[in-house]
Design a protein that fits this description.
Helices cover 42% and strands 18% of the residues. With 325 residues, the protein is an alpha+beta fold. A 5-stranded mixed beta barrel has the order 1-2-3-5-4. Strands 6-7 form a two-stranded antiparallel ribbon. Helix 3 crosses helix 9, helix 6 crosses helix 10 and helix 10 packs parallel to helix 11. The protein is elongated and about 65 Å long. The protein starts with 13 loop residues before the first strand and ends in a 29-residue tail after the last helix.
């Protein structure tokens, strides 16, 4: 039988397939009865699954990152598809086809990486170009940028999502700088490149997706500033001059790009480039979240369920689907 991928599961379908456990938690319903809540994934997506009458022993049997044969039925709940699991069976990793679980689109990643390098090569400012070229040349960072998600849940939360987000923002920055000539184009494009560099240290993403200890304690904004300091020291040791003011302005974009103190920025944007970038970053993140919300809604309702991330429902027809007026 052909594999039943997550993206192909329909409501009220009998499911008997192998998935990887991205996350699992023991929870209690309103009556105090425990159940196992899992996030199951393959290369096409993630689906929530519940196993009733669970206990700690069941949680310990099925670790994050392990493979499990799931037997159950799918259903819609508040517009989202989920599985009600009847049976769970552990599956050894050697028995699965790994390509079924590799969500990274390598051809897309190669195209995006080529575009990123092209934009870096277009920079004329010696300091910001040298910093960006140092990142491109670093094997660990360049590999991480190709593989990493941009986050765990909020937006671009899939392998390669960080590179997609970064290149999108570099292109937006290039365009907005042409419209506003007072903005320093190279600084803004470089800011787009490095703004989430700290996520390579904040997130663990080679197996199950989670936060590192340093990510929990520091966060990617602080980690990104530290990484830029490290790059500046490397360049100095190689005899490549680094303009301290340009480095400082680039670090300010990193540390302020969440926009407000309430959203986690230690400083609010205080340069033209930082102000512009805050809104570009929010635009790209919000539109990605909106598209994901629309694409994942399996109901016939023209409106999506309420999104806590976006703080609203969305009219699905506004994303290209015809609506009757």
């Amino acid at each position: 039988m052909p594999r039943l991928f997550v993206r192909d599961i329909q409501p009220q379908a009998q499911v008997d397939e192998v998935y990887r456990i991205a996350d699992r938690q023991l929870r209690a319903n309103r009556q105090g009865n425990s159940y196992l809540l899992m996030q199951l994934q393959d290369r096409t997506g993630v689906i929530s699954a519940m196993r009733w009458n669970a206990d700690e022993r069941l949680v310990e049997r099925f670790a994050k990152g392990s493979y499990v044969r799931v037997q159950g039925v799918s259903q819609l709940h508040n517009g989202n598809l989920q599985l009600i699991v009847n049976q769970l069976h552990s599956i050894d990793g050697s028995q699965v086809t790994m390509e079924d679980f590799d969500a990274l689109d390598r051809s897309k990643s190669d195209r995006l990486w080529g575009r990123l390098v092209e934009l870096v090569n277009s920079m004329s400012d010696p300091t910001v170009r040298a910093i960006c070229e140092e990142i491109v040349a670093d094997p660990r960072w360049s590999a991480g940028l190709r593989l990493a998600p941009a986050g765990i849940k909020a937006h671009h939360a899939y392998p390669g999502g960080l590179l997609e987000h970064v290149v999108s923002l570099m292109e937006l920055s290039d365009g907005i700088a042409q419209h506003y000539p007072d903005i320093d184009r190279d600084l803004l494009v470089a800011g787009a490149f490095v703004h989430d560099l700290g996520k390579l240290e904040e997130l663990a993403f080679e197996n199950e997706l989670s936060y590192t200890d340093s990510g929990q304690l520091l966060g990617h904004l602080v980690q990104g500033v530290v990484m830029l300091d490290t790059i500046a020291r490397r360049l100095h040791e190689k005899g490549t001059p680094v303009d301290g003011e340009r480095l400082l302005r680039l670090q300010h974009i990193v540390v302020s790009h969440h926009g407000t103190l309430e959203h986690g920025s230690p400083k609010v944007p205080m340069t033209l480039e930082a102000i512009a970038f805050q809104y570009l970053d929010e635009l790209d993140a919000k539109l990605n979240s909106a598209r994901e919300l629309v694409q994942q809604d399996r109901t016939r309702d023209p409106w999506t369920p309420f999104s806590t991330v976006l703080g609203r429902k969305l009219l699905k027809g506004s994303f290209g689907e015809p609506t009757d007026i």
